[in-house]
């Protein structure tokens, strides 16, 4: 099975038909709302909404599985680091202490710490689906246009667009180089020992890096010959005007952010505390 990276999936769904600028505004407000709140009730409702949108988008798991696995690895490392460096953070936040069982020294598992880390995990899994949806339902050219529309320099926006377009090329080059290496007897499968697999993969990455550098030089020369960056403004071929659905989505996320903020701070704290 081929490894699939985080690339645009050209499907026909309500999310794909939204303009890139509307989706960018939605994602920014969504991410800010999730970062602000530690209210478990708000996060659970937002997570359910995100999962529904992921279902509506018709995107398959294989389209983002590789990136999701990487995220889960860093997710687990982050939670381990939280407990190692601050095992009683939940106790200090919620003002109570209910011990479950000791581990060693100051490392004691408490209900407050588990609830705090559950909320941290909930914040991650609430943002990740929206980030994946934004990347997978927005064509790179339209993504660049949306960045420029919200005030980012078109030079930066175009660089982001090229980077996103380049992901499938890197993936294809890696697969071609890996197939050529395997044809010469270089094994990178699980049948080989881990140390030898790492050495063999390094042998594949080196020509991949050289190929990438060569392509970057070609693109840079082509853009320089066309006087890219000479003017302060530019138009976008893939830019789309707002429709009623775009305005509806923006109003919806504003309402979600407002309701979540009210529920979060109605008791004077952004931490939902079930222990009091």
TrEMBL record:
<dbReference type="InterPro" id="IPR003339">
    <property type="entry name" value="ABC/ECF_trnsptr_transmembrane"/>
</dbReference>
<keyword id="KW-1133">Transmembrane helix</keyword>
<feature type="transmembrane region" description="Helical">
    <location>
        <begin position="114"/>
        <end position="136"/>
    </location>
</feature>
<protein>
    <submittedName>
        <fullName>Energy-coupling factor transport system permease protein</fullName>
    </submittedName>
</protein>
<dbReference type="GO" id="GO:0005886">
    <property type="term" value="C:plasma membrane"/>
</dbReference>
<feature type="transmembrane region" description="Helical">
    <location>
        <begin position="244"/>
        <end position="265"/>
    </location>
</feature>
<feature type="transmembrane region" description="Helical">
    <location>
        <begin position="66"/>
        <end position="85"/>
    </location>
</feature>
<dbReference type="Pfam" id="PF02361">
    <property type="entry name" value="CbiQ"/>
</dbReference>
<keyword id="KW-0812">Transmembrane</keyword>
<keyword id="KW-0472">Membrane</keyword>
<feature type="transmembrane region" description="Helical">
    <location>
        <begin position="24"/>
        <end position="54"/>
    </location>
</feature>
<feature type="transmembrane region" description="Helical">
    <location>
        <begin position="198"/>
        <end position="216"/>
    </location>
</feature>
